[in-house]
Amino acid sequence: METTVVDNALTQISLYLQKGQWEQAISLLESLRPPDQADVFEDLDEQQQTELLPRLDIEDSADILEEMEDEEAAELAIRLQAEALAPILDEMEADEAADLLGDLPVEKVREILARMKDVSAVQPLLIHADESAGGLMTSEFPALRRRQTVSAALACLKAWAPEEEPGSQRAYYLYVIDEQQHLQGVVSLLDLIAADPLKQVGDIMDPDPIAVQAGTDQEECARLMSRYDLISLPVINGENRLIGIITADDLVEVLEEETTEDIQRLGGAQPLQKPYLNTGVLEVTWKRIGWLLLLLVTATFTGTVLRYFEYELEVVVSLAYFIPLLIGTGGNAGSQTTSAIVRALAVRDIALRDFARVLWHEMRTGLLLGVCLAAVAFGRALLWQTGPLVALAVALSIVAIVVWSTSVGSLLPLLAARLGIDPTVVSGPAMSTLVDATGLFIYFSIARVILPMI
Amino acid sequence: METTVVDNALTQISLYLQKGQWEQAISLLESLRPPDQADVFEDLDEQQQTELLPRLDIEDSADILEEMEDEEAAELAIRLQAEALAPILDEMEADEAADLLGDLPVEKVREILARMKDVSAVQPLLIHADESAGGLMTSEFPALRRRQTVSAALACLKAWAPEEEPGSQRAYYLYVIDEQQHLQGVVSLLDLIAADPLKQVGDIMDPDPIAVQAGTDQEECARLMSRYDLISLPVINGENRLIGIITADDLVEVLEEETTEDIQRLGGAQPLQKPYLNTGVLEVTWKRIGWLLLLLVTATFTGTVLRYFEYELEVVVSLAYFIPLLIGTGGNAGSQTTSAIVRALAVRDIALRDFARVLWHEMRTGLLLGVCLAAVAFGRALLWQTGPLVALAVALSIVAIVVWSTSVGSLLPLLAARLGIDPTVVSGPAMSTLVDATGLFIYFSIARVILPMI
Lengths: 454, 454
Fold this sequence. Notes:
2 copies of one chain form a homodimer.
Chain A: H1 2-18, H2 22-30, H3 34-43, H4 46-52, H5 58-67, H6 70-79, H7 82-91, H8 94-102, H9 106-115, H10 133-136, E1 143-144, H11 150-160, E2 173-177, E3 183-188, H12 189-194, H13 201-204, E4 212-213, H14 218-227, E5 232-236, E6 242-247, H15 248-266, H16 281-308, H17 310-315, H18 323-346, H19 355-383, H20 388-418, H21 423-426, H22 429-450
Parallel strand pairs in A: 1-2, 4-5
Antiparallel strand pairs in A: 2-3, 5-6
Helix pairs in contact in A: 1-2, 1-3, 3-5, 5-7, 7-9, 14-15, 16-22, 18-20, 18-22, 19-20, 20-22
């Protein structure tokens, strides 16, 4: 639906810009919703972006910079003057402004901070790591006091609300603090409305809110929010002082980011930080080459196994026909297992202590799979007229290889998790290569025992 | 953090249950948060579950059934009497109750519906497909009228709020409808609080809310909600009548479900519907065997390629050593590309019309990768004393195979998407097998040209 909106707007705005019809371009852009504005804006060329942004309403400029991909926003910001940027950053949500500043050169950050009207909300956020609770949180949010009456609390909110953007999620859970900012409880906006106006906030709040430390990893924050269905999550420091809140819109971004990273790692590459088409060929190559080189070198071990069985290969050339089939099947069975385990670990269906149950589960599955596959492979080998003994060797090898690869495929991610390595990293390609070499060793060993001519 | 909470509670509750200390077990269970209650409950044995649930507070029973995995909740419900179940379902949120009923046998559903106090909210939800907007939505939510004053709207909400569970996300966006239930606008709870109490709702609402049809796929709903940072999404029928709303907690579940499916498909298996350890060996085998069989059969084509080059293999046995390395490298390079493309499609970084740009991007990346890998493989082949000509054949083949597999790896998912097939399905293992056979054909063709003895 919004793809069409964005495409149409983009075509029209490009036309306006070519003709120098700034006003038309601006009013069309400003009529879109912020994520759509950002999409259109990202597709304009650099010069158009640099010229257009300072002419927009300051609120729209802030929205666009918030919604753009981090790297693109940073590139645009670098091209703008500090004088033009400072008021836009003043208008942005503090956490987004801090993220953007974190991507700029130190010199530029200094220039911008010197020109901003209010740096008190942004500056404390600059010290936190990007992927931690502190890096996600915003430091601007309403807070209540225990002894406040409900009607006084609502009046505070009423005074605070007009500053908020439409769609802001910062005021649906209200956190209760004392004079030293210690977190004491939480009350939802709905509960506040439903409560007797003369009651005290302390009487209706939940005195045991779920909270995280500033250093908590963003993935853990996302997991807590999704597990307990939270619209916002309070961030505290070591002394239980409330220093910020994380809202659900940030959570969804984190989930997307982490999923992308997992999927790219399962494919055997380091995660790209930018949208696919904006990442240059050199950068993509760089992200992928390390893994490919490593696998190439380990794959030569498989070659070494073949060299070791040189004599068998020379005597019975037809043994070679089944090499791709056997290593393919082993790799496929192993990667099915690995992706099931990686995901089960991620959603906490299994824990490390379950490794014996998991292994037993996968070995039985492997045996069943192996027997079915062996029957088919046996038939196929007979059709190739390789002789019943070669066919038997292939069939027995398949059973052994599939049991072996489902076992390795289940233990590797658990071992990785135990050692504190991201289990997605060892999965997929790495597992296949390990299974390749050992699988061929199994195959030729079985062939050596069964075939009389060897 | 909550892993420890759950584990400790589970140990303690099991102890209480063994000693027949029901009251202690119940009061400990009821002190936990709902997702933790459900986790503990899922780890009890069937008999304990069946005995314990009817003794719990009806609200806790409802929470537990809502939070349990769908299949486990259904299994438990089947074991319970309709008399015991009906009041629990009355207490559950309508969308969750409808989901549970959808997993039960028709006869049981009839018995339960006959005993429920209020089926008007649940029954209309039963007709919608599980994975559509209609299947996700709830039909119980507050709605406002245009001509209502802000203070009247707040009074309505105040009357409605006490029915809500803590943490409910159904009243943060309030939808405005007319007498025929036509959707006319949306206003956030915060805006309502901030507005002049004498103004009319129609004057402060956003008259152009984002909405979906009941048949819209859940993935599309999740995408809209995350793109536009929505806490809830209105669902309309063909006549623009508001029939339900989807809340952000459902969205997070959908995102998790879809990610799990994607990751399992990338690993080459049909998605499991249940938590890993609860899925039996037979069922797991069934989900995986089809794919493995298909790949086994296609892998025999690779064997056919080898048979075709039987003569070359007999003359130069050392050519065989490089088979695993070449098909491995081709498969790995291809799957890196495929996972990058699948993910870029999913997050809409690329569209189908970008296929030429994507192909050009991947071919150049493939060339660069191929040249680096070829240099290393050339050196390795020389070390194996296979002679410089075999080493040259291997190096040239790697360049060709990597360019070929990055190209195939980028086009396959785009082609699948074009044909309306889930691109994750063709990726990973399927792509590897395709690249295997063609890769070996490239290799032996190059060898035939270069090696004088063939």
